[in-house]
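Entry 14. Structure prediction run on the chain below.
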Amino acid sequence: MADDRNGRYALALTIATVRPLDYRSGRAHRAPRGGTMREKGQSLQSHLVDEVTAKRIDEGLVTLLMDLVRPANEISVEVNRAGLVEILGFAGQQNVHGEDVKKLDVFADGLLVASLRETGAACGMASEEQEDIIAPSKRGEGAKYLVFFDPLDGSSNIDVNVSIGTIFAIYRRKSPAGPASKDDFLRKGVEQVAAGYFLYGTSTMLVYTTGHGVHAFTLDPQMREFRASQFDIVTPARGAIYSCNEGNSSKWDAATRGYVESVRTGGKGRKPYTSRYVGSFVADFHRNLLKGGIFLYPGEVQASGPPKGKLRLMYEANPMAMIVEQAGGLATDGRGRILDIQCLDVHHRTPLVIGSKEDVEEYLSFYK
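Output returned:
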């Protein structure tokens, strides 16, 4: 296992008594028994070593996860001092999606790529900020895993001090060796072996899953270590929050408009839901994960064919879908399960409705 060059990382975990879903089978996930000790203050590295001992993950995945932690630690520092250095504002270019790139986007992307290349833990990478698949270092050509990441989700909020984040998804390669092939990247979300996000807000957090529950870790700003804050997170079966950009409602289909009107006004004999929409996907998702609720980024109705989505399947929808299903929630594009969608392009876009199980099921009922 590679040494942690930037110091120890730890988190503060509390044991939950509820049981999340096995995202591959739909069966309830049982919390691990014996052999591992989960307590507040356990370091992230110690936790990951326990996961290796319990044979839930291997050392290659530990190295890869720590390769993501190191740049996230640095990004956290820069986010918190962004107003004092020349890292705010636009970089004077656009990304592959035609969006104006912020300086901190470029900084975050560069840190992640450099870290993943340094140890050779990834055989290939794909970033929301880069059009092409990113080649590994020579050492990485024999690695088992490849990574998708959105270096800085919600970056349009950087200048106004709203929470932003880094999202990642990890897959096991299919090709035998060498740099990851295109087929290695064109996958279904159900094939993910790990997914997570770093949230840069009032505190910096890591929330992740390897298919064995959802765990949260908080960065100790003095020690620069991640320390456990919660194990086996379970999202409420129903919330009282809906999150969407209602300014786009004229572009939605009738079912989506009907559902949003229902929760907004209190249909079906219940109180109206509270509208909470930050415009930073990680921030909106994290709040709803803990408190319950539903996040909607529906597709736009087209003259022909299905609604056209905006969120990226591989960098945003799939990792968050894996997390929410592990926590007992659901994620759909309005027609089916997000994790069952076959990726056609590394920048594949999709509609996304995600959150508490009963809320998403109620949304889908409007299509019947």
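The longest strand covers residues 145-153.
Filed with the rest of this week's runs.
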